[in-house]
Amino acid sequence: MEAELNRFAEEAAEKIAQCSTPNDILNARAQFLGKKSMLNGLFARLRELPAEERPAFGQLINTARGKLESLLASREQEIKSATWEAQAAVDFDSSMPGYSWQRGSFHPVSIVRRQIEEVFLGMGFEIAEGPEIEDEFHNFDALNTPADHPSRNLADTFYLQSGKLLRTQTSTVQIRVMESFKPPIRIISPGRCYRNDKPDPSHSPVFQQVEALVVDRGISMSDLQDTLQNFARAMFGPQVKSRIRPHFFPFTEPSAEMDISCVNCSGAGCRVCKNSGWLEMGGAGMVDPAVFKMVGIDPEIYTGFAFGLGIERIAMLKYDIPDMRILFENDIRMLAQFKGESL
Ligand code: PHE
């Protein structure tokens, strides 16, 4: 009887291995483990054995049943996953259009910042960066700004409890670069600045500047004018003119303000330029010898120019945005206009 059981178990295992559909498994389960199965039959025939052999043989039948059950279960699992894979292969239609994900767009200030960087990179400048949380030394002292200068007031500058401050200008990076590198220096430094200003159409407590600094032997004011003119043309078109007017900054001497001819009316006078024909671009000047001394550059050997441009201002002109606050409110309808523009 034991030999019969073994033969049955072997045959059943072989058949189970040959099952290839869920239906085969169903039939095999009925055939080998069901009521009319040989296994059940053997149970019925336990009585034929001497009483003392019955428990041991009963055990053997149960073990065989357990083995077959687990064989059936694992074969069933194999068939299921194979059919799932086969089905997936049939279902996958490579010609079906994919999902189209909504893409974001770049912010106009980011776009313009990158355009400005490209223009200056093209002129041989490198990009330098500095921290937005600065110390008084880099924001004021080293820039030759006296202790009683009004820009140091709480009303103008955000001071932190640590005694540091949020930089009010990217001119801080001039100092950091000149502290670390010897001339010749030719860098721009774009980045955020902070001033204690109420938001209005042309002011924001957070804004971005691009600082430019060139230091070498024989750098003159005409290099500054030429750089400004080239930048204005590259940014706004070949017809744009530029000019500088006398001004004052503690860290440049002489100092100037930079204008370009109005990009809206080409100088004729309009709403955008308040009928002056010119648009203010930022401050500029020749690096003050006092600043050179602070960073250990000999003003007898080297001269340099620096200027600072407002990025929001340029973005507003380029994209005809009438109010700076629009750039910070980030209304999705405004941002959506820049869809597809790459950096
Ligand atoms: N840092 C000045 C400002 O924020 C601009 C400036 C930069 C002027 C470099 C001169 C030279 O107003």
Question: Strand pairing plus helix content: what structural class?
Answer: alpha+beta
Shape: elongated
Question: Which strand order does the major sheet show?
Answer: 1-4-5-9-8-7-6
How far from one another are the termini?
Answer: 84 Å
- Evaluate the radius of gyration: 41 Å
Order of helices and strands: HHHHHEEHEHEEHEEEHEHHH
Strand content: 15-25%
The domain count comes to 2
Main β-sheet: number of strands, strand sense, barrel status? 7 strands, mixed
Mean pLDDT over all positions: 92
Report low-confidence residues grouped into runs of 5 or more.
none
Q: CATH superfamily name of the largest domain?
A: Bira Bifunctional Protein, Domain 2
Helix content: 40-55%
Give the CATH class of the largest domain.
Alpha Beta
CATH topology annotation of the largest domain = BirA Bifunctional Protein, domain 2
Number of helices: 12
Number of strands: 9
